[in-house]
Amino acid sequence: MLEGAKSMGAGAATIASAGAAVGIGNVLSSSIHSVARNPSLAKQSFGYAILGFALTEAIASFAPMMAFLISSVFRSKKESFSFASTSFFPALVK
């Protein structure tokens, strides 16, 4: 049951990348429209478009991070993680 809930949560967190794709499309289409209306402000409009693209992409980078946290970091007590496990530090475990 817990594994299914974690998979659903990771999938829901990944859906945010679709919203980021729509946001990037809106930023770039607005940039094209603004340059078409006023070509003399093309450099300033390009700077704003790059800023909008970067901020939207930064938000999109949180989606895989949340999916990773949901699927691997939040574990049940049966699956507890230890840095002294044999797979990471075999010399520490005797």
TrEMBL record:
GO CC field: mitochondrial membrane; proton-transporting ATP synthase complex; proton-transporting two-sector ATPase complex, proton-transporting domain
Q: Which GO terms describe its biological process?
A: proton motive force-driven ATP synthesis
- V-ATPase proteolipid subunit C-like domain sequence ranges: 8-70
Entry's Gene Ontology molecular function annotations: ATP binding; lipid binding; proton transmembrane transporter activity
Keywords, comma-separated and alphabetical: ATP-binding, CF(0), Hydrogen ion transport, Ion transport, Lipid-binding, Membrane, Mitochondrion, Nucleotide-binding, Transmembrane, Transmembrane helix, Transport
Function according to Swiss-Prot or TrEMBL: This protein is one of the chains of the nonenzymatic membrane component (F0) of mitochondrial ATPase.
| Protein name stated in the entry | ATP synthase subunit 9, mitochondrial
Q: Which organism is it from?
A: Actinidia chinensis (Kiwi)
